[in-house]
Write a structure and sequence with these properties.
elongated; 1 helix; single chain
Length: 163
């Protein structure tokens, strides 16, 4: 009879350990749930501190320094002049008249897909124009051109402008 009693006692002891562990787990989870619920629904008084009103700040614009850009004469990367000086042919008449050329810069060539001709982008006195060969704008006529230079005519004088 003794061995049977010992087996029953062992079974009861293992069940007791299970029940004790179950009570401990329930107590831990109960504590966690209580703290979460109490933290969410707790009525805590918040002390409001009145701050004095801030004075209205008005922006008074100061006179900004004026900047001006200066043109570089040479391209530091390509080591060639940025502004090309057009070569002016002297008129065939014996009396020399000084011809004042407008500021002309050749910007580039735009080639059309459907034909072999292109449109030349030329800046005259700071304003950009699109020229076709033979077209005249502001007294300047485009005679011919390549991707690198154009030949223009201004008041009967032909000259070459390099890109």
């Amino acid at each position: 009879m003794r061995p049977r009693f010992q087996q029953i006692l062992l079974v009861l002891m293992s069940k007791i350990k299970t029940y004790i562990l179950l009570v401990i787990v329930i107590a831990i989870w109960g504590t966690i749930i209580y703290k979460v619920v109490n933290g969410v629904t707790a009525d805590q008084e918040i002390d409001l501190i009145e701050t004095p009103p801030t004075p209205e700040l008005r922006h008074t614009p100061k006179e900004q320094p004026k900047y001006s850009m200066q043109l570089q004469e040479r391209d530091p990367f390509l080591d060639k002049p940025l502004l090309s000086t057009p070569a002016v042919k002297s008129p065939k008449t014996k009396t020399k008249q000084e011809l004042v050329l407008p500021n002309i810069i050749y910007k580039g060539l735009i080639i059309r897909k459907d034909s072999s001709t292109g449109i030349y982008l030329i800046q005259v006195e700071g304003q950009q124009f699109l020229f076709d060969v033979g077209e005249e704008i502001d007294g300047i006529t485009l005679k011919s051109g390549t991707a690198e230079h154009v030949i223009l005519n201004y008041k009967g004088t032909s000259f070459k402008v390099i890109k």
